[in-house]
Amino acid sequence: MNEIAAATAVDSAARLDALEGIAGRLLERARRAGADQAEVSCSEDTGLEVNVRMGAVETVEATRDRGIAVTVYFGKRKGSASTADLREDSLAATVEQACAIARHTEDDPAAGLADPELMAREPASGWPEFDAWHPWALDAERAIDLALACEQAGRDSDARIANSDGASASTGTSLAVYANSHGFCGRERGTHHSLGCALIAGQGDAMQRDGWYSTALAPEDLESAASIGREAARRTLARMSPRQLPTGAVPVLFAAEVARSLIGHLVGAVSGGALYRRASFLLDAAGTRVFPEWFAIDEDPFLARGFRSSAFDAEGVATRASPLVEAGVLQRYVLGSYSARKLGLATTANAGGVHNLAVKANAGDLGMLLRNMGRGLLVTELMGQGVNAVTGDYSRGAAGFWVENGEIAFPVDGVTIAGRLREMFAAVEAVGSDVDRRSHLLTGSILLGRMTVAGAD
Question: What's the family (predicted)?
Answer without folding.
Answer: Belongs to the peptidase U62 family.
